[in-house]
Amino acid sequence: MPYTKHLKLEQFVRQVDPEQLKRFVFKDLASEALVALADAGKWFDVLHQLDGRRREYIEAELSKVNDIANENGMRMLLDRLSSANVPFDTEATPHQLAFSCRLEHPEIFDHVYDRYWLEQGQTFVEYQASKAIGATITREAVDRLAQAIKDQAGQEAESRRCAIRTYLEEDRSVLIIHHRGYRQLIEEVDEQDQVIPRIVRPAELSAVIYEPRTGKLKIHARKQHVQERLRTLVGELLFENRELFSDPESQEIYSLEPLKDPNFTFDVEAGDPIEGVKLTELSLHLPMETYPRVTLQTSSGVMLAVERLGLGLTTADLKDASARIQFRFTSKGRKGKRL
Fold this sequence. Notes:
By secondary structure, the chain is an alpha+beta fold. Helices cover about 35% and strands about 20% of the residues.
């Protein structure tokens, strides 16, 4: 997930209940030696001594807790807990509340995390149905679709499998698909600056969203063939028409060509509750042999870095360039919120 935060274990363990953390990590595991390490605060050593698969699972779940332990994640979590009439500690910190929910109400936590992930700027290809749709989406139809996605994924190389969570909401149907990725070698650096190689099988996330009111299908998938398979399966299993969503709508909502103007600035309409707009990330191809693709990231704004490095945007090819823009909104009596 591109918007996940890096899990800094030392900081994380100081922000959650240590007894809850031990209950989660040592569930169904009896090891006095590891408990002693945990009591001494040596959680890094604890995780490195766990079975590889168990360790990867724990790290992934702690990372998810860490991801939503912020203002936006807490808003979603509190809304969900309140609507489900689940009591919660009103004095708990974001990390404490998120971790407690993960332990005590994992289904609620997963639902909130999926919603959070969907709102973090994922790239969707949108399809408009080629004809009017009058059918009502049922739970049985969505379950059949989920099973068909699993069956086809299982036919891929290396017996690729997936897990799916489905949500039938008032204004949309959502499927979150966790694909099992291929094995990869990664290298970590521990607290003693030692390089530790690990073999991992990371998950890949895809999403399918159908909106009955607009007749739109939205798909997020890293690979083109997965995107194509998902859109044909939705048409076939939900509407008995494989090509119902065959033509994607134009995805060129924004153009980066104005960046070629050395005097370019972001203009804000008078009366808009926006303090300022800046470009915080830019990735593009340049006519350079050493680094043919360059990505710039800076919270202070990319354009100043472009000027200092002399990258020459006036002659750059911006057709496949990508960018991230930050908005800062006005807020009474405090620093404005950013998006």
